[in-house]
């Protein structure tokens, strides 16, 4: 399933399980859910501009 900005937000697997993609900003992946249960979180490091 695609969201408003044509970003992938959900996949339904052949076994019927749903994978939701948690995105923010211009499409950065923040985490994933499997059947509404959080299975992974991603955290971006602060970029040092020195």
TrEMBL record:
<protein>
    <submittedName>
        <fullName>Rhs-family protein</fullName>
    </submittedName>
</protein>
């Amino acid at each position: 399933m695609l969201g408003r900005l044509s970003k992938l937000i959900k996949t339904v697997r052949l076994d019927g399980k749903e994978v939701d993609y948690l995105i923010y900003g211009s499409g950065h992946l923040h985490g994933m859910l499997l059947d509404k249960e959080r299975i992974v979180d991603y955290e971006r490091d602060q970029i040092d501009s020195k």
